[in-house]
Amino acid sequence: MRANTLIMIVLAGVFGVLAVVLANIWLASQRNAMAQSNGAQRDTVVVAAMPLKFGDTLSVDKLREIPWPAGAIPAGAFKTTKDAMAGEGTRQALQTISANEPILASKITGPGQRATLSAVLGDGMKAVSIRVNDVLGVAGFVFPGDRVDILLTRSARGDDGADRSFVDVLLQSMKVLAIDQVADVSKDNPTVVKSVTLEASTKDAQKLTLAAGAGQLSLALRQAAASKGEMTERVTLSDLTGDTPEDVAKRQAELDKKAAAEAAAAEERKRAEDRIAGLTQAVEKVGSRLDELGKVKPAPVVVTAPAPQPVVKEVVKYVTPAPPVQVTVGVFRGVKLETYDVPRQP
Predict the structure, then answer these.
(1) pTM listed for this prediction
(2) Domain boundaries, the chain
(3) Other beta carbons less than 10 A from residue 22's beta carbon
(4) Average pLDDT for consecutive 10-residue bins of the chain (346 residues)?
């Protein structure tokens, strides 16, 4: 037998024994862990026996108790069904609860309360609604429970007297409580709505109310896990085209000049129309006056006979003209006519 073959056989035997030892150690540790878990202290937690939707009333048949590690009970959970149903009046679900999901106090109403919008508001928070349309409302893809940023678009007059449009991020990561009059977070079909209700602090509610009259509000839907704010800056028309503020001011000045010329032309047309209207009224007044005068009967006029005038007779006397002193005599010399003035003979 060669030496190399002998060495390989010895190494294989060593590694095999080592693998068996390690496997025994791992199995022993797993048995110890299982033994420790079986001896751990356990408790119970109330979970949903069936899926619950917003507004569903809790009852004993919709709840059940399951074992739960005593040190891992969620905050706000109920240990028994009796605790969950305690108090006068029924409780309702404030959001969708899946089957076998723990029933938490934040997900249901208090005893005797209804599943209204006020029941889902946090401590010190207010509900405020803003008007949107199919574009400003992100095409209806905003649902209760989503987080949105509020954008404010408005115009302000600059130092040079020109109006400039810009967009600011007014508020960030605002929780949507309801769309129109629906507060059910299980709603998942896009719907074009007219209003969105947001959860806001008192100051943020004041900002939203003031901004609704100062410009146009629109929504920007945030990622579900993005709840932190971010640095933002104002966006103006120059950011859209890459123009400098001087270029924007020049273009705005041209627009203002054109608007002023159009306004002057409109004013001139208005003055001309006013003059024409004035002349029309004057003509109508004159025509009305003539009609009134035509209806009045004229008074009789007495005409006196003119005084007789003396007749003047004109006498025409014919006077015989005196005969001429000279006469003209013509003489042909061949074919040529020659004339001569000679004294007239008596």
Answers:
(1) 0.47
(2) 42-115, 120-241, 243-289
(3) 10
(4) 76 86 86 62 85 85 87 86 84 85 86 72 85 76 86 81 82 86 65 83 91 88 74 79 69 84 90 87 82 69 66 67 73 73 71
